[in-house]
Amino acid sequence: MRSMRFYRIIRTLLQYGVDDMIPRRWQPWYMRLARRTCFWLRNRHKEKALGERLRLALEELGPVFVKVGQMLSTRRDLLPPEIITQLAMLQDKVPPFPGADAQAIIERALEVQSVDQVFVDFVQKPLASASIAQVHEATLRLKNGQLKDVVIKVIRPDIEHTIRADLELMESVAALAARYLPDGRRLKPKEVIREYRKTLLDELDLLREAANAIQLKRNFADSEVLYIPEVYSDYTRHNVMVMERIAGVPIGDVETLRELGVDLKLLAERGVEVFFTQVFRDSFFHADMHPGNIFVDPSNPNDPRYLAIDFGIVGTLNREDKRYLAENFIAFFNRDYRKVAELHVDSGWVPSYINIEDFESAIRTVCEPIFEKPLKEISFGGVLLNLFNTARRFEMEVQPQLVLLQKTLLYVEGLGRNLYPDLDLWKTAKPYLEHWMHDQIGWRAVLRSVKANAPYWAEKLPEMPTLLHDTLLQAQSSIKLSQSYMEEILRQQQEAAESRIWAFMASTLAIATLGLGLMLDEPWWAALTGVVSAYGWIKAWRDRPKHFMKETR
Predict the structure, then answer these.
(1) Annotated binding residue 130
(2) Quick one: 352 exposed, middle or buried, by C-beta within 10 A (0-12, 13-18, 19+)?
(3) Per-residue model confidence (pLDDT) at position 549
(4) Which of 68, 307, 309, 538 has an alpha carbon within 20 to 30 A of 228's alpha carbon?
(5) pLDDT at position 550, please?
């Protein structure tokens, strides 16, 4: 099964000529020979441009590969514009499945004879179609008679089987990589794929996505920078979700935004603000921020607001990871490379035996050239390559729990580059991180902790005298028990010493008995020493230390 899927992937890539993306100088002779040998897998789409061939190949391979294409579509610094343009179509222009099938799925999920019982003007033609689901327009008839413009998200039929097959193949490849690659242990491919598997399968459950949307909406209630549409939970099932319809300009349509007079600089800065607020204030962030999921409300061009959809993939951070990340970012922005190196060691991301001075110097070599430059002048492809080489040199392990965050940061940087290339990412992000750190370690943090725990303390306060009395009794009992343990240990030591003396004496007499029996003709001397030896063994046995722990339980 896996070998067939692997062959199908290779066949698809070769038949679309995707291997043309690899420069000839990077192809060893045996790779070129193998390509010529597979004559039945020739490029059948030579008339199409390379970007279109790549897009069609990813579409044919399924949602796991479409996700990769979506992420690459935001990286205008890594790929040529013609390829980026084609990959951008993977965000919401994947070929749809029939609208009649979607209608049937909705009717079964909501247990109605016809969609007309719940919706007015249901449109069978999809509004947008992505790798895992597609969206249809409709008007929802609420139980109180009100009408609401909505979109209905429907999971593609039988998509889970395809995803699981691809994930199993990826797990097999990851296991081989972990075993045979020199960096396999450090890169943790199995753990990374395990995290990706969980993330992707969670995206198939629209009940989970609805809960994520509700949480994000609560986090940004009354926000002027981000709006989350309302989810109608009563009409949401595991494969169908009904959500408020929003009107906005796609974030990737920069020309339209510019024509509408939207302040692109402010919009780019607010994108950075939204990201860091989600990560460091809420520890709950939208982790699929490709351009197909982000829109702009242009109603007030001088005060633009983001509109977000598709909440199937979200990320969370625990307190320790969040603290280390914030400190790393701030040290990085302050160019305190020594601090960055020490934090990596303290967090366990880099082994403790690594030389701090060498690590500091390597980080400075990679990072110093990119400061005080706008995004358009920074080659993040080159920076990432140098960082990977540095990580390999200093045995830095991949942190699977941070993979989603890293991917999202790439999305945010890609959006910022597209909106306002002159954006200073470092100066924009630094104030948010410093404010968060100040809140975490200052007097506000103490007051917040007291306020958060006040109800618990108020509940326990009446019990404090009793708890204090019980604690003192337990302490007194523990002291007495400790004293009895010490006395028993001393007694055991004394018994052990006496037992060893008797055992030594019995051993000596036993040897003497054997010698006397062999050398003397009169056996009574041997018999006498033998009796005394036997008495010594009996005495050593009786005086042996007794295990008092069982007796005291």
Answers:
(1) yes
(2) exposed
(3) 44
(4) 68
(5) 44
